[in-house]
Amino acid sequence: MKKLLLPALLFTVMSTSAQTSTWHVSATYPVKGDGKWDYIAVSPVTQQLYVAHGTEVNILDKATGAEAGVIPHTTGVHGIAFAVPFGKGFTSNGKLNTVTVFDLHNNQVQGEIPVGGNPDAILFEPFSDKVITCNGASKDLSIINPNTQKVVATVPLQARPETAVSDGKGRLFVNLEDKSRIAVVNMATFKVEKEWPLGKGEAPTGLAIDTVHHRLFAGCDNKLMIVLDEHDGRTIATLPIGDGCDGVAFDAAGQLVFASNGEGNLSVYHQETADKYKLVAHVPTAKGAKTLTVDPLTHTVFLPVADRQAAGADGKAAIAPGTFRVLAVSK
């Protein structure tokens, strides 16, 4: 999770096809509560939206936005992961230094697991059958056995992990935010094998992977998205995006790469080939809409956001009550 501290101008690099794109905000789903927000995810089991929101996870019908449930007592929640083979879901509770376990079918809480400091992004890694938290404060990864619901390993890192993706074949790629590098973790040994620089990219946040063409997409804080070869870390392309990116997603069916930018827009690139990318849309969203998920079935992009009040004497802008919502972006 990356905080957007200052307003920024929209980047102006835009192709003709981007200017005429039909991508737009097609629906807005109001959500109760005024807490901070972070990641959003679509359950592959129930096809519902899970929205990390302050002290709870809001569950919504992805087609209508209707409230479908809540996972409570997840203070400082950042992310949600789905361990489908085990029938369990997991939330990373940043202020509690814990992970909440819930049933994937009925959302009933099954337990809570102590992990590292300030767990942020969380994912299920299919090669090892483990759940992984990226712990920003302790600068490490917690490796959780979903069956026993216990931490079975801790992977120390040399910097703060922002998020991670898996190639499904034994390697985990981790954005190191304050080092501007990507760590490669062997999921058989739970050890860091190497680190790769990000070229011109600085302070990486969002990260996505194309496992067919073996490409990594790292959204960076200096308004760039870096495309790397997952085999050797070579920089393939350096793509302009908006400011305040905190989420990147890849839609394999459409060969589209999305970057959600907190300044208030969504950058959409089409993968022409493994090495060539074309900007096809720069979609207005809302200021603060910095994280996202793409639904692999409908290809809709969902982004949580709320409005802010005027900044106080301390320079902080409180969330405007009653404005939290999820935006649906589609063609």
CATH architecture of the largest domain: 7 Propeller
- Strand arrangement, largest sheet? 1-28-27-26
- Cα gyration radius (Å): 18 Å
What percentage of amino acids are in beta strands?
over 45%
Q: Quote the distance from N terminus to C terminus.
A: 27 Å
CATH class of the largest domain: Mainly Beta
DSSP helix fraction: under 10%
List the secondary-structure elements in sequence, H or E.
HEEEEEEEEEEEEEEEEEEEEEEEEEEEE
Mind telling me the CATH superfamily name of the largest domain? YVTN repeat-like/Quinoprotein amine dehydrogenase
Number of helices: 1
Shape assignment: globular
Largest sheet: 4 strands, antiparallel
Number of beta-strand segments: 28
CATH topology of the largest domain: Methylamine Dehydrogenase, Chain H
- Structural class, by secondary structure, is mainly beta
Overall pLDDT confidence: 94
- Integer count of domains: 2
Q: Enumerate the spans where pLDDT stays under 50 for 5 or more consecutive residues.
A: 3-17
